[in-house]
Amino acid sequence: MPHNTIVAAVLGLLEGLTEFIPVSSTGHVLLAGHFLNFHSPGRAFEVVIQLGAVLAILGVYATRLWGIFSTAPHDAQSRRFILAVLLAFLPAVVIGVMAHDIIKTVLFETPLLIAVMLILGGIVILFVDRMATNPRYDRAEDFPLSMAFKIGVIQCLAMIPGVSRSGSTIVGALLLGADKRSAAEFSFFLSMPTMLGAFVYDLYKNRDVLDAAALGDIAVGFVCAFITAIFVVRWLLGYVSQKGYALFGWWRIIVGTVALIALFATT
């Protein structure tokens, strides 16, 4: 099996394992790709394989999604929840389109920045996880529209690789009054349009640089991400409801520190 195919499988597994936990899947995949000497045309691989994780969560939540959309024509709460997710998605559309080239050509190519963001994000998660709060919301469907939009604005911080899309949305939701389970669940729902939109836009932007070999690597990473993400999504809600997010804060700090040491050792 070609070296790139093996690395693509490893990166796909890493994507699926880390996409829905607040540790920055993009940061992990970019750092791993850096040290494994893997480079995809236009950095499309790192974005497109996220579709595997999206399909995994769509599969896990298929029944619930059907319930929401099928009742929307005659149920005000279902319509309001759909609108809340769309409002939260809107800031990422605007900022993502405007800053796409800078994100892909500068931020994605700066391993030092990714490592630092992992560490700083880990410290933030540890702090927020230990805060004594009285959550006002224990169901993602109950988040007010204004709160959903604010979470969407906070999500834009994750365009800096290493910050974490799920981490920023979860921390934002916790600070705005969600309990730990509903914060993770809203992050799941918001990931669907956000990651699907990023996939479609990135595929369009890189349509001229993707050859057959690149598409083959993407397919391998996609399948690996899909399989592993299913298990992570099923496990995560139960874990954070009981244990919180401290594990992921320490994980980020350790990975970021090891990456910094490795980067300085190889320069």
Automatic annotation (TrEMBL):
GO terms for biological process: cell wall organization; peptidoglycan biosynthetic process; regulation of cell shape; response to antibiotic. It is a multi-pass membrane protein. InterPro entries: UppP. It is found in: Cell membrane. GO terms for cellular component: plasma membrane. Its main location: membrane. Keywords: Antibiotic resistance, Cell membrane, Cell shape, Cell wall biogenesis/degradation, Hydrolase, Membrane, Peptidoglycan synthesis, Transmembrane, Transmembrane helix. Pfam families: BacA. Its EC number is 3.6.1.27. It catalyses: di-trans,octa-cis-undecaprenyl diphosphate + H2O = di-trans,octa-cis-undecaprenyl phosphate + phosphate + H(+). The keyword Zinc-finger does not apply. The chain crosses the membrane at residues 48-69, 81-100, 112-131, 183-201, 213-237, 249-266. The keyword Cell membrane applies. GO terms for molecular function: undecaprenyl-diphosphatase activity. Bacitracin is thought to be involved in the inhibition of peptidoglycan synthesis by sequestering undecaprenyl diphosphate, thereby reducing the pool of lipid carrier available. Belongs to the UppP family. Catalyzes the dephosphorylation of undecaprenyl diphosphate (UPP). Confers resistance to bacitracin. This is Undecaprenyl-diphosphatase. The lineage of its organism: Bacteria, Pseudomonadati, Pseudomonadota, Alphaproteobacteria, Rhodobacterales.
